[in-house]
User: Which sequence fits this backbone?
């Protein structure tokens, strides 16, 4: 998300995309990683990310 060479990958586009998903989705930039251990999710970041829920407001970092 928000990469200077990929101007179409905006947060607004991620929100539109996630609205059609049946489950939550993460929008992350190149300074963010998602670590999953035994079903536990950890966002490792020095950048920007958002957990998008189709039925709820997004969780923001």
Assistant:
């Amino acid at each position: 998300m928000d990469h200077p060479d990929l101007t179409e990958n905006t947060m607004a586009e991620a929100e539109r995309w996630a609205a059609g998903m049946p489950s939550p989705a993460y929008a992350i930039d190149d300074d963010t990683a998602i670590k999953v251990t035994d079903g536990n999710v950890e966002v490792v970041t020095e950048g920007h990310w958002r957990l998008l829920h189709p039925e709820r407001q997004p969780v923001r970092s």
User: Anything to note?
Assistant: The mean pLDDT is 86. The beta strands are 25-28, 32-37, 40-45, 49-52, 59-60. DSSP finds one helix and five strands in the chain.
